[in-house]
Amino acid sequence: GDPVTVTIKQRNPTSPQTTKVQFKPQFIENDPSVFEIIAYTDDDTPQDVGGDRFVVKIEGDENTEFFAFVSDKDDGKYEIHFTPTVFGKIKIQVELDDKLLIDNPFTAYV
Q: How far apart are CA 109 and CA 86, in angstroms?
């Protein structure tokens, strides 16, 4: 058969200093919710591939913790799925390779 050509693309590392978290400031109690992490490199270029290891911790008032599932969309974006079960202020903490993203924790309300 014909020879196969494989192109390997160099992947620049994602930076916790430039990566962005996008979410609405208000979530609804007991409503499955989603927000997004958009990975960027040190030079503020959006990643176009996945593979990063993000850890997301979401806490409500009185140390209530919500399970957060991170879904890698393989395009430099990551969806975070969770269901807030109590009313009030929540803190969203995002880590990349054990380093906090800049401006952590983020605050939202239920």
A: 10
In the predicted structure, residue 30 carries a pLDDT above the cut 90: yes
pLDDT at residue 1 greater than cutoff 80: no
The Cα–Cα gap between 110 and 99 comes to 26
- 88/107 Cα distance (integer angstroms): 11
At residue 71, does pLDDT exceed 90?
yes
Give the global pTM.
Answer: 0.88
Mean pLDDT score of the chain, rounded to an integer?
Answer: 92
Q: In the 3-class helix/strand/coil scheme, how is the chain assigned residue by residue?
A: CCCCCCCCCCCCCECCCCCEEECCCECCCCCCEEEEEECEECCCCECCCCCCCEEEEEECHHHCEECCEEEECCCCEEEEEECCCCCCEEEEEEEECCEECCCCCEEEEC
